[in-house]
Structures are given as structure tokens and as C-alpha cells.
Write a structure and sequence with these properties.
Layout lengths: L1 E3 L1 H7 L2 H13 L9 E5 L7 E9 L3 E9 L11 E9 L5 E6 H20 L6 E5 L8 H5 L8 E5 L3 H13 L4 E3 L3 H7 L2 E4 L18 E4 L20 E4 L4 H4 L1 H8 L10 E2 H5 L13 E4 L4 H16 L1
Parallel strand pairs: 1-6, 7-8, 7-10, 8-9, 10-11, 11-14, 12-13, 12-14
Antiparallel strand pairs: 2-3, 3-4, 4-5, 5-6
Length: 314
């Protein structure tokens, strides 16, 4: 059995290869993806955590990811998410590789956001606003610029301002025109793409702030208790798309919008599979507001792990 650490996965999963792999996976009908298992540890305590177990398999490969999410870790100076991924031969059950699940999760989540933006963000988008400073947020400019290369300004906001300042400085050192912002409303109003990668439990983005023609990308929250956008973000004629149907059962953002009557239960325009298969259209015009809500799927993990494994065999 081989081991892929974070550095090996960064080499094996460049976004220009990962994005086509994800698109092919969402367009395919050949992968089985059972519902994830969700377990809560220490419920109603200050240090509550969530454990997710996410299996998926194709004809050739079986993968199982285990994720531990502890939001209070930020106060300890620790990442809020830790994950491991096991890849097996699907015909024999033989273990093939143990992979850094954090890196797979971060890279496939950022890639899924970019894949959504390829259908929904305006082709002439130039200003990207990132909410969050975690592992996924750090990858968003690189991933999204693969599909919207015209982005020439990146703003970053975080609930800890010093985190935003540090990340903006890191991006500038990498050649990105980045700036930390403190006024979230003003930043949202100027952004062409607003990408949220946080573990927020209360809405951060207000629908009234979003500009006509903007694209809102929500990839942080994944339980009914978590939410990054208020219900108004989903109203006003916004074209709402999701990664999978599971988002309608798991995403607090969507559930709140449905409860408020601003999004009909059948008001979601398309899933990512429908977009990738060409069964539904993406953005309609330059003035339309679009929203992409993702809760993550084991399909993405398996696609990324398969790509990493096969690149190792080449």
C-alpha cells in the first residue's frame, strides 16, 4: 500500500488536470455514491465535532473518506477539519493507497467551486472576493482563475482580520493582486464572484449586497445548522444550482431560503451533473445573479484519488 502525503497530492492534482477529471466524473453514470454517514461528538458543548464517513466506488476503484470537523479548533490555532482517504481495488478489496484527506478535500472542493463558476460566473469576471482563510479558501483564486482567467483582483475577508491580512500578503507574494478587506458589505457590492469557504453558523452575505450579474459561491457549510448566506441571496430571480440533490437536505442556507418562501423546493435550476451533461444550461445573461451551493460529495473525492493514483502509475 502506498502513501500520498499533502505534497505528493499537490503535485498529482494540479487544477488544470483535476477540473477535467471532476467534470468527467459528474457527467458519468458509472459511479455509486451512497449517502454519507454523519455522527456528532460532544453535542451542545463548546467543543462539539462532526464525523463524516463518505464512500464511493466505480468499476475499478473503491474509496472511503473519514472527516473530523471541529469548528472550535480555530481558537486553538488548529485547522477545523482533518481527514484521511483510503483507496482500494474495487474488484478485490485490496488496499492501494492511504491519502491525505485534507488535501484531497481542499483541492476537490476548490475545483468544484471553479467547475460551478465555469457554468455560472460571467466570462468577463474580474473581481473575486473570498470569505475565509482556511485550507480551501487559500486555493480558490488559483482554481477559479483556471476558468475565469480575467480575474485580476482578489479581495479576502475573515472574521479574524489578521488572518485576512496574512493571506492577502501570501497571495501577493505569489503574484496575485490581493487585498484584505474589513468592510464586508462594501466588498460584496464590488465583487463579480463571491466565494464563501467558512464554517459559519450565521449568514455572512446578504442578498441585498449582491450586485446584478454577480455569482455567489457557497462551499463552506454542509449541515442544516451551518449557513453562509441569508435567504434573500436565493431570491430575486437568482439562478440557483447545487452540486448534488443532497444539498437540499443538508444545506442550512437552502433550508432557510425554502422556509422563508424565497426559494421553492423545486426552484433549484440544476445539479452539477446536469450542467456537466448539458442537460441544463448555465448562466442566461450578463445581468442574472447566480448561486452555486455545494455540500461536497464522495464522487469528487474518488475522482481526485483516482487521478492521483493513476498519475503515480504513469
Amino acid at each position: 500500500m502506498q502513501t500520498f502525503d499533502a505534497a505528493a497530492l499537490r503535485t498529482a492534482l494540479p487544477f488544470d488536470a483535476l477540473l477535467p477529471a471532476l467534470r468527467a466524473a459528474f457527467a458519468s453514470h458509472g459511479t455509486s455514491v451512497p449517502a454519507r454517514h454523519v455522527h456528532t461528538l460532544g453535542q451542545d458543548t463548546a467543543h462539539a465535532g462532526t464525523v463524516l464517513v463518505m464512500p464511493a466506488w466505480s468499476d475499478a476503484y473503491l474509496g472511503i473518506k473519514t472527516i473530523n470537523i471541529f469548528p472550535a479548533n480555530s481558537a486553538r490555532g488548529l485547522p477545523g477539519l482533518h481527514a484521511t482517504y483510503m483507496l482500494y481495488d474495487a474488484t478485490t478489496g485490496v488496499p492501494l493507497a492511504l491519502m491525505d484527506g485534507n488535501e484531497i478535500t481542499a483541492r476537490r472542493t476548490a475545483a468544484a467551486a471553479a467547475l460551478g463558476a465555469s457554468f455560472l460566473a460571467r466570462p468577463d469576471a474580474r473581481v473575486l472576493l473570498v470569505l475565509g482563510c482556511g485550507r480551501i479558501a487559500r486555493l480558490l483564486p488559483e482554481a477559479i482563475r483556471c476558468v475565469r482567467p480575467g480575474i485580476d483582483r482578489v479581495l479576502v475577508w475573515n472574521h479574524r482580520p489578521e488572518g485576512a491580512q496574512e493571506l492577502a500578503a501570501q497571495w501577493r507574494a505569489e503574484g496575485v493582486a490581493a487585498q484584505a478587506v474589513a468592510d464586508l458589505e462594501a466588498a460584496v457590492r464590488t465583487a463579480d464572484i463571491v466565494s464563501c469557504a467558512t464554517l459559519a453558523a450565521v449568514p455572512l452575505v446578504r442578498g441585498a449586497w449582491l450586485a446584478p450579474g454577480s455569482h455567489l459561491d457557497l462551499i463552506g457549510s454542509f449541515t442544516p445548522q451551518m449557513k453562509e448566506a441569508d435567504p434573500a441571496c436565493f431570491g430575486g430571480g437568482a439562478r440557483v444550482c447545487i452540486d448534488t440533490d443532497e444539498a437540499l437536505r443538508k444545506a442550512g442556507d437552502l433550508l432557510d431560503a425554502i422556509a422563508a418562501g424565497l426559494l421553492a423546493p423545486d426552484g433549484v435550476h440544476a445539479t452539477l451533473s446536469q450542467l456537466c451533461r448539458g442537460e441544463r444550461s448555465g448562466r442566461h445573461d450578463a445581468h442574472e445573479r447566480t448561486v452555486f451551493k455545494a455540500v461536497g460529495t464522495a464522487l469528487e473525492d474518488l475522482a481526485a484519488a483516482t487521478l492521483a493514483w493513476q498519475s503515480n502509475l504513469a
